[in-house]
Design goal:
mainly alpha; about 75% helix
Length: about 180
């Protein structure tokens, strides 16, 4: 609720032309609230871009794994000599993908915390009645940490399953060939 009020205030200022952005050479006219609003906007934009790039990258990794697995089960010839090298490559790719997933999750949650801090700072210092501390219940970020954890948790789980598949495959090649 508070987040929406802060965003509406910012949008009203932007539309009316009062963005608290100084003219050239008048840097001292910038207010801390304007800088905090700009920081919140930039943090949101970077978090959104990071999520889009991550999920595009995850889709690519998942597709490559799916194609390789499909080829492996459909191929009826002799297993190539370099098969272990290919399996090792997929193990490494999936291991790195798991590490990146955990790292992105941490960065997204850090972004959420910073946005929440900015909203609280603006709402505590605001002299406008719409943003006074009494009018606001609990400031919230537009990024839900629970949604971030769920989405990235499922992608990490999928990557762990793929990692286990590529680790187990060289140990039990009969899985692929269907022999006892």
């Amino acid at each position: 609720m508070k987040h929406m009020q802060v965003v509406r205030l910012y949008e009203n200022r932007r539309v009316s032309g009062n963005t608290d952005v100084p003219a050239k050479g008048k840097i001292d006219a910038v207010t801390p609230d304007a800088l905090l609003l700009k920081e919140m906007e930039e943090t949101n934009a970077w978090a959104r871009l990071g999520a889009q790039i991550y999920f595009g990258w995850f889709a690519l990794i998942l597709t490559i794994n799916g194609v390789a697995t499909g080829w492996l089960f459909a191929y009826k010839g002799q297993t190539p000599e370099f098969a272990r090298l290919i399996f090792g490559t997929f193990i490494l790719i999936n291991l790195l993908a798991i590490v990146v997933t955990l790292w992105i999750c941490k960065l997204m949650i850090d972004s959420h915390r910073r946005i929440t801090d900015v909203i609280q700072s603006i709402s505590q210092r605001s002299s406008e009645p719409a943003l006074s501390a009494a009018a606001l219940e609990v400031p919230r970020s537009g990024m839900s940490p629970q949604a971030i954890k769920v989405a990235l948790g499922f992608t990490a789980a999928a990557l762990i399953i793929l990692l286990c598949f590529w680790i187990i495959l060289p140990v039990w090649p009969q899985i692929v060939r269907g022999s006892p």
